[in-house]
Amino acid sequence: MWPSIRPAEAMRRFWRTAVRTARLAIGVPDYEAYLAHMRTHHPGRAPMDRAGFFAERLQARYGRGRARCC
Fold first, then answer.
1. Is 29 within 8 Å of 35 (Cβ atoms)?
2. How far apart, in whole angstroms, are the C-alpha atoms of residue 68 and residue 70?
3. Distance between CA 45 and CA 35 in Å, rounded?
4. Cβ atoms 54, 30 nearer than 8 A
């Protein structure tokens, strides 16, 4: 049986999931997911700040230069 949750909490969960899905679909990195990952898997390392995180993600995605076919 499903655990009962309040409608407001269900809406918040739905909204967080929808926002995260939309960001993944358009390629916007999720800083909150990165922070959660760092806390869980790398507790001794300091996470990047928000600006550094987005700069690093942009570099990783577009830093190879222009792709050319010819």
1. no
2. 6
3. 11
4. no
Q: What is the pLDDT along the chain (70 residues), one digit of tens a residue?
A: 566 778 889 899 999 899 888 888 887 888 988 999 999 999 999 999 999 999 998 888 888 666 665 5
Number of neighbouring beta carbons within 10 Å of residue 53:
16
DSSP code of 45? S
The H-or-E segment that residue 10 falls in is helix 7-26
For the chain, which residues make up each domain, given as ranges?
29-60
How many Cα atoms sit within 13 Å of 70 on the Cβ side?
0
- What is the length of the chain? 70
